[in-house]
């Protein structure tokens, strides 16, 4: 396994891996406490493109991811790697222009874009040059054809938390699902799990906004027999939903609350009604030093998915060091042993998805506590 151990959302059975069994040498890379330089390009033969929304409505996110990539480059890369940062302008058209510019400069690997519509636009151009893409999307519909989606899979998280809950006797679930694309993914996943006998869905209710119109449904739910409530929503929407549930007379004391990696933020974990709740996500210990270093360097905490930029640059740096002649060939990217980043153990699958080793965390008054650790190998 290549160890990236610095600081570094269908639930069907795990996809079979038909990749070559290439065993790469182990690399241990320690973080250096340095502040990154303004220039994030290094002169070398290995060129990697980084496509981010550095302008447009998601510019703040794009800048945070650029900063994370900058940290990763300066802590882990050497002169084997040159990072070509390009602005997608948060549009498919901008992403195409950015990708073409990077490819014309000799990019051998593309990291990004963030959003699925931009990924779709970029893929044909990368395919024409036979250049692999590691995008930051979690949308399965863009996986494959040379694109590996690195975003956090909601299906994996749902499967993990539902499986753990069942092992603890929490097997009759009420689900309140937001009327969003994310909610549709969750609904599909839960249907598969229920049909496979992994849990019983007592009722699933789709709602809009913060659940302001759920009063009649909650009255009905209170008459049912269940022992768990899955709430696949995070941030301010979760806070509003919980407040409405409480105002409508929902009894939280008799059930186990369950969630996904959308809860993996300080804002969500500070909601009093979530104390004792469980959710599936990557283990946080590796991420904490990264967040501290990021804040020290840039004066703010990173966006949650900034770690994807860090880990992807880390992966590229490690592969370019271990196999400088052919670092980004499919057998290297999809080695079955995987990689260990600041978001834990992960591997790129030959079909284009990313498999992650997830933990179960419990929210306590003092923060989160791991109650079921992530596996340390695949």
Automatic annotation (TrEMBL):
Query: What InterPro entries has UniProt attached to this entry?
Result: BCAA_transport, Leu-bd, Peripla_BP_I
A Pfam family of this chain: Peripla_BP_6
Secretion signal, residue range per the UniProt entry: none
- Keyword list, A-Z: Amino-acid transport, Signal, Transport
Write down the SUPFAM superfamilies for this protein, in alphabetical order. Periplasmic binding protein-like I
GO BP terms: amino acid transport
Residues covered by the Leucine-binding protein domain: 46-363
**Superkingdom:** Bacteria
The Swiss-Prot or TrEMBL record describes its family as follows: Belongs to the leucine-binding protein family.
User: What is the protein name for this chain?
Assistant: Penicillin-binding protein activator LpoA
Q: Which organism is it from?
A: Caedimonas varicaedens
Phylogenetic lineage: Bacteria, Pseudomonadati, Pseudomonadota, Alphaproteobacteria, Holosporales
